[in-house]
Amino acid sequence: MDGIKYAVFTEKSIRLLGNNQYTSNVESGSTRTEIKHWIELFFGVKVIAMNSHRLPGKGRRMGPIMGHTMHYRRMIITLQPGYSIPPLIEKRT
Length: 93
Fold this sequence. Notes:
It is a single chain. The longest helix has 12 residues, at 32-43. This protein is 19% helix and 38% strand. A hairpin with a 2-residue loop joins strand 4 (59-62) and strand 5 (65-68). The mean pLDDT is 85. The chain has 93 residues and is an alpha+beta fold. It has one domain (2-58, 68-77): 2-Layer Sandwich (Alpha-Beta Plaits). The chain is elongated, with a radius of gyration of 15 Å. The strands form 2 sheets. The protein has a 4-stranded antiparallel sheet with strand order 1-2-6-3. The chain has 2 helices and 6 strands, in the order βαβαββββ. Binds to 23S rRNA. One of its GO terms (cellular component) is ribonucleoprotein complex. Part of the 50S ribosomal subunit. GO terms for molecular function: rRNA binding; structural constituent of ribosome.
C-alpha cells in the first residue's frame, strides 16, 4: 500500500463515486498492475478498469531561485458493481 498516497476529493471525483469510480494519487513510479494488485488485496474488491494520468509539478519560488514540486500520477479506479472501498482520508507524506 506504499504506492497509494491518498484519495482525491474534487467535484469530479465526488461525481465519479456515483459510477463506482474512485480517484487517488499514487507514486509516479508505480505501474497499473501494481496498483490494481494492491487495491484488490488490501480492500478485497474486484477492479475492472483503471485510468491514469500524470500531473506536472507546480512551480515554487524561494527568493530568486525558481524550483518545483515533484510530479505525481492520479488513478481513477472502476470497481465491479456491488463492491466499494472506504475513503482514504489520511494524507500520507
